[in-house]
Amino acid sequence: MDNERLIDAYSLKKSTKLEGTAIEGYDFDSGVDYEKIIKSFASVGFQATHFSRAVEIINKMISEKAKIFLGYTSNMVSSGLRDVIRYLVKHKKVDVCVTTCGGIEEDLMKCMGNFVLGTFNAKGAELYEKGINRIGNIFVGNELYVKLEEFIQPILLEFYEEQKKTGRVCNPSDLIWKFGEKINDKKSIYYWAWKNKVPVYCPAITDGAIGGNIYYFKSKHPDFKVDIAEDCKKLNDETVGLEKSGVIVLGAGLVKHAILEANIFRNGADYAVYINTSQEFDGSDSGALPEEAISWGKLKADVNSVKVFADATIVFPLLVAESFAKG
Questions:
Q1: What does each C-alpha distance from 215 to 31, 144, 180, 268 come to in angstroms?
Q2: CA distance 307 to 47
């Protein structure tokens, strides 16, 4: 049966000629060449092609000298991605960071001791009795929280004394730079943020062990204040008047929305790369695709954007290797 008769038999429409990239993967008969393997993702399809698009967009941000906003959730710092993020801040590859409370404290805690590889199925009750906390398959001992408290309390006292003396209330970004200065450890993201004056914003500074420390301190000093509103203004001001703005978000939730909300004040970012596994069926901002952000003016209508549905611990080091770390 020829093609014409087959189409008639199954009531199929005759297809128009397909143009574009042929779907094909890497040919291992050529040996193992990791650079070529990664380049082959562009024609693989599915999330491999989204990854390749993310590389293209990040390189465009860099070449266009966009101001780059990097957002990452606390679990990114719990994992070994902390070292990748530190590289970016150390070498001034990004201009502004936005994270959650755990994304600050866990970097500091890693300067005080190791997080250890565990298992996802460890028994919570047994870990609790041993004073071990679980973040996925990563274990953290209680002793690091004790060390964190010993580190933070004198710093809060320093800011409190300044508040009493001058009336100036500290804001979270002030605290973060001071933490980086005082930790004085080149393994720390925030040491380099302080050293290179890379702004770091944490809209939920009280949502974690730092918040617990603020609670302890304020219980003794009821007039102590932290000015979150000032940081809200500072973050939004970061976008005003920018020629080009680029957004990279690892994970979702608060950090994603804070960065996108700030870009409303310049009528949207020009570039956006999201890496997370959140779905949009429940209407959450975490799962929202770039197209939804366009409707709010958070991204420009002609934005260069992609969402990679993937675990950032796998794909982000490869993204950095193919963009920021090249050359």
A1: 58, 18, 21, 36
A2: 9
Residue with token string 């397909």: 18
Give, as one character, the DSSP assignment of residue 29.
G
β-sheet with 96-99: strand ranges across: 200-201, 96-99, 67-72, 245-250, 269-276, 299-309
H-run or E-run covering 232: helix 228-237
The domains located in the chain, with CATH, are: 54-114+149-321 (3.40.910.10)
15-34 tens-digit pLDDT: 899 999 999 999 999 999 99
pLDDT tens, residue by residue, 33-69: 999 999 999 999 999 999 999 999 999 999 999 999 9
Give phi and psi for 201, each to the nearest 5.
-110, 140
Residue 48, helix vs strand vs coil:
helix
Cα 98 from chain centroid? Answer: 7
Catalytic sites, residue numbers: 298
